[in-house]
UniProtKB/TrEMBL annotation:
Belongs to the shikimate kinase family. Catalyzes the specific phosphorylation of the 3-hydroxyl group of shikimic acid using ATP as a cosubstrate. InterPro entries: Chorismate_II_sf, CM_dom_sf, CM_II_prokaryot, P-loop_NTPase, Shikimate/glucono_kinase, Shikimate_kinase/TSH1, Shikimate_kinase_CS. Substrate binds at residues 122, 146, 169, 226. GO terms for cellular component: cytosol. Its EC number is 2.7.1.71. Binds 1 Mg(2+) ion per subunit. It comes from Tindallia magadiensis. One of its GO terms (biological process) is chorismate biosynthetic process. The keyword Amino-acid biosynthesis applies. This is Shikimate kinase. Pathway: Metabolic intermediate biosynthesis; chorismate biosynthesis; chorismate from D-erythrose 4-phosphate and phosphoenolpyruvate: step 5/7. It comes from the Bacteria.
Length: 263
């Protein structure tokens, strides 16, 4: 038992050393993000992160622990990004746009790059109602859905945890939602051509507003009807047609890094 106790004391000391070093690392990370902001440098630098991980692994003398240390270093880097995001973003990041514009996919990618929480509003409403969106529209009506949507948005904006939020396509139709979006977030508008929207949605039977009239003409009409509402609330817009997911997300992150002080 005496030998075990000594080993435990050694572990406790090592844990203390790790905690102190991590605290120092996070503080340096905050200085780095401030410097990047001043010099207008990209916030997200995956090549640099890969270099760090490879270099840290090269320090390991016992190969039995390389994979574990690699995993830990990955987590340290992600937590450093989270610390930086807490400093950078004092408001939520709202992703808006017509259905099928890529909101959920892009929101997930941006949230991953910034190590932020991600919320998909339609999925959250489905979980609360224990029903798919199409059934909610059919059984309770669009009005009920819009009230649920507004209630969820209000909850999100009241949270101290800032998130990347994928909104529903019609969230801008309610003026009270527009007020919340503009007041509590930076709003990114994803755009796509009607043809691309049609191709993305043509196999999706769960879109209640297009369920019985899925056509490029119908999509274009709805997009034109909502265009002014999207434009009114958006801080930044980006075309998603014929672009890679990573490229879209990187462009959004670049924009976010340039405007956070002004919002």
């Amino acid at each position: 038992m005496e030998k075990l106790e000594k080993l435990r004391i050694e572990i406790d000391k090592l844990d203390k050393d790790i905690a102190v070093l991590l605290e120092k690392r996070f503080k340096v990370s905050m200085h780095i993000i401030k410097q990047k902001k001043e010099e207008k440098l990209p916030l997200f630098h995956p090549e640099r992160e890969h270099e760090i991980i490879n270099r840290v692994c090269s320090y390991v003398s016992d190969e039995r622990f390389i994979e574990e240390i690699k995993c830990i270093q990955n987590l340290i880097i992600r937590m450093s990004r989270q610390v930086q995001s807490k400093y950078m973003f004092q408001k939520h990041i709202f992703i808006i746009g017509f259905m099928g514009s890529g909101k959920t996919t892009i929101a997930k990618k941006v949230a991953d790059m910034l190590a932020m929480n991600m919320i998909e509003m339609d999925s959250a409403i489905e979980q609360r109602c224990n029903q798919p969106i199409s059934d909610i529209f059919h059984m309770k009506g669009e009005g009920f859905f819009r009230e649920m949507e507004h209630a969820l948005l209000s909850e999100i904006t009241e949270s101290e945890v800032k998130s990347v939020v994928s909104t529903g396509g019609g969230i801008v139709l309610k003026e009270s939602n527009v007020h919340l979006l503009k007041k509590h977030g930076t709003v990114i508008w994803l755009k796509a051509t009607p043809k691309d929207i049609f191709l993305r949605l043509s196999k999706d039977a769960q879109r209640p507003l297009l369920k019985d009239n899925m056509s490029i003409e119908r999509i274009e009409k709805m997009m034109n009807e909502r265009d002014a509402a999207y434009r009114q609330v958006a801080d930044f817009s980006i075309q998603t047609s014929h672009k890679k997911i990573d490229d879209i997300a990187l462009e959004i992150v670049k924009f976010l890094g340039s405007v956070h002080d002004d919002k």
